[in-house]
Amino acid sequence: MTNTTHFDLSEFPGSPYAAELKRGVSRLRFEPALEAAYVEQHTLRVRRRVMIWFGTILAIIGVHVAVRILSGAATDAMGYVLVLLQPVATAVAIIYLIYRIRRPDAPQRYLPVAIWIVPLVAALSGYFGGTAVIQGSPERLVMMALTLTGYFFFCGLLFRSALAASAVVIAAFALAMVSAGVAPFVGAKLLFVIVLTTFIVALASRDVEMAYRTNFLEDALIVQLLSADPLTGLKNRRAFDEHLLRMWRQAARDRRELAVLMIDIDHFKAYNDTCGHRAGDRTLQTVSQTIAQFARRPMDLIARYGGEEFVVIFYDLAAHHVQDVAERMRRSVEALQLEHPGMRSGAVGTISVGGAIVEPVLGRTPHGVVQLADQALYEAKHAGRNTVRIKGASEYDGMTTGVFARI
Questions:
Q1: Alpha-carbon separation of residue 121 from 94, 126, 127, 282 (angstroms)
Q2: 147 in Cβ contact with 125 (< 8 Å)
Q3: I need a surface site. Which of 43, 123, 160, 197 has the fewest CB within 10 A?
Q4: Residue range 359-394, pLDDT digits in tens
Q5: Which CATH superfamily is domain 237-397 in?
Q6: pTM
Q7: Mind listing the pLDDT tens digit for each residue in 4-47?
Q8: What are the residue ranges of CATH 3.30.70.270 in the chain?
Q9: CA distances from 165 to 33, 42, 115, 369 (A)
Q10: Residue 234 dihedral angles phi and psi, to the nearest 5°
């Protein structure tokens, strides 16, 4: 499929979403991590239609049974009861599974079960549907066509799984024809109807899934645009605030500590005044790329806080490790040997780092830990810059909101 996205994908280096768009969605399969995220979104999106579809099936079965009882035709053999038990049990199981996906851990569980249940149902419906058509119930051919449509659009299956279920229906229907000794010409005509129906529905279903997958990737790129700093490529202040709140809640639930580092490029205004803003921008990009290497765990985040300031969140990192990472950041930037003409001869660009490590408990807030890290950064600058200061819970408890402690 030709890439028709309106995004300039070169603006998203390293983005897995842009990489998938470049590759094209015609494979209908992403890399494992993105595929898992797409499956979760897909399952939540189709939840309502799956419940309606299988609820309708149960209602139709109920009406069918009631009509047979009222007409006195409910004296069939046990086989008839067994044939009904299969779709009823399946519909109930599917409704139960799809209903449970409201739980946070459940969306990933539906499809792995459904892709086994639905083909089993498909085999039985294909065989018994074919038998009913042979025995003089041509309306069952229409029902089978509706069932095939349901596999692609109403069972919550992805295209590949729906196609596999439909292939099972076709194979079971053909087996019913052969088992009943139907004349080849008649069997071929009936089978042609089923195959043609499958082809038409599958073609539409494939286009729909490709559109959904493209929208999934483009929506993710929009989120990246809204959460990224255009100059450095790091997360922006908005993304930091949102992530800090999520991690604060997570740390409170898990009873873990949260660390925030505030990082400032020393004497950056003097550098801008001497070298110009273009040079300043290049310095910001270089420094951001350097310190970004130290925040690579899944729950870590580094963002541009504003101007020449950066901020880092570390989840559940011991105090001595936080101190060590901050020192390595400082040394790495100093090792860049960025010339600083605005300072004395031979001076190079450096950073000051202030950090706060606290466990979220009653009486503490995310804004408070940021203020404590800012206080630590203030002290690092006051101590001569190119240094690190880390504060802990005891300093937090003695802090006055909105006011730096005197030093």
A1: 11, 8, 10, 62
A2: yes
A3: 160
A4: 999 889 999 999 999 999 999 999 999 999 999 988
A5: Reverse transcriptase/Diguanylate cyclase domain (3.30.70.270)
A6: 0.68
A7: 666 777 777 778 888 899 998 999 999 998 998 898 889 888 88
A8: 237-397
A9: 25, 18, 8, 54
A10: -75, 175
